[in-house]
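Thanks for the sequence, V.! I ran Auxin-responsive protein SAUR50-like right away. Repeating your input here for the record:
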Amino acid sequence: MAIRKFNKLPQTAVLKQILKRCSSLGRSGGEQEGLPVDVPKGHFAVYVGENRSRFIVPISYLRHPEFQSLLRRAEEEFGFDHDMGLTIPCEEVVFRSLTSMLR
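Predicted structure:
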């Protein structure tokens, strides 16, 4: 089994990287290249579960330790340097339950 070595960035750098790739934060009026058109300002898209179901979540979730834990798992399993979108490695039902508690 291959061992992947990830560049361990400070948490703030990782969060900025995520927002840059997945967020509409800072979108000014028109569509910016590479950003999803259907994601409202202040939100970002994640893909969850075996079927990679798409969820739009507010950036405020990034403050919650539970969500940060999911992001660390995502970094360990998939890394953030790919074109697949931000993929969260957990079951969809677990993700729905977690996000309902964060609201």
